[in-house]
Amino acid sequence: MQSYGGINKDNSKTNSAEASDFGDNSNNDSQKDYNIKANDSSVEGENKIENIGVAVFKDDKLVGELNALDTMAFLSIRNKVDRFLVSVPDPISNNEYLDIYLTPKGSTNITIDTSTTSPYIKIKCEFTAQIYSMSEDSKYLSNDVLDAVSNSCNTYLESMFLDYLYKSSKDFKSDINGFGNFAAQNFTTTEEYNNYNWLESYKDAFFDVQVDTSVKSGMLINET
Predict the structure, then answer these.
(1) Does residue 8 belong to any structural domain of this protein?
(2) Of 21, 46, 172, 201, which alpha carbon lies 20 to 30 A from 91's?
(3) What is the CATH number of the domain that holds 211?
């Protein structure tokens, strides 16, 4: 069992437009803000309730809480987010970040190998993306640079997903994403699945995440 807020979703009733709009808009601050949890957030919804974070339960016991990045990964894997913002390393400017507007392209693909007692969980995600803001004299419209930004997004998101997934298995030992439903398809009988003891095996899971991001263009500028 798990409960979660409605960050980043277009159809959620919130006053915050995007995931990275926490306080100051500087890139360095936005990176720090991804580590905030519900009680630390200044983001509120229409009913004055906080708008970020996931409470993680195992056997009806609270075992932890997800921060902003964890929450984005959680919702993305469950296909519960329409679009969100992240700040990724700028591939052509050292120590700078780009705000990227990401939209999932189709549903997350999940396959699970249960041939050993340590399940191997493979996740594939695709996103379309746009650079959310940049200066008018920016050079981010060339195909080569956009490809480099796409690769930066892939690396960043794969790390984000893996950090979250291993936190869920190693720290929380709770399958909050419901991977057990996919694992069950590998067994011909309920008895075989029960003997595998999925909830116990999940804490020893290994993960492989592949992200394919296509950055098409900048959102707020026109080429001159």
Answers:
(1) no
(2) 21
(3) 3.30.300.210
Q: Is residue 60 situated within a structural domain?
A: no
Nearest to 53 by CA among 41, 37, 69: 37
Q: How many domains does the chain have?
A: 1
User: Which domain does 128 fall in, by range?
Assistant: 67-218
Per-residue pLDDT of the chain (224 residues; tens, 9 = 90+): 333 333 333 333 322 223 333 333 344 454 544 544 444 443 333 333 344 567 777 777 777 788 889 999 999 999 999 999 999 999 988 889 999 999 999 999 999 999 999 999 999 999 999 988 665 556 777 889 899 999 999 999 999 999 999 999 999 999 999 999 999 999 999 999 999 999 999 999 999 999 999 998 665 444 44
Distance, CA of 49 to CA of 116 (rounded, Å): 44
The angle at the Cα of 5, spanning 83 to 212, to the nearest 5 degrees, equals: 30
Q: Is residue 24 part of a domain?
A: no
CA distance readout (Å), 73 to 36, 68, 115, 191, 216 = 15, 9, 26, 32, 22
- Tokens standing for residue 106: 């189709």
Reading the block at residue 5, the tokens are 């807020």
Give domain status of residue 100, yes or no.
Answer: yes
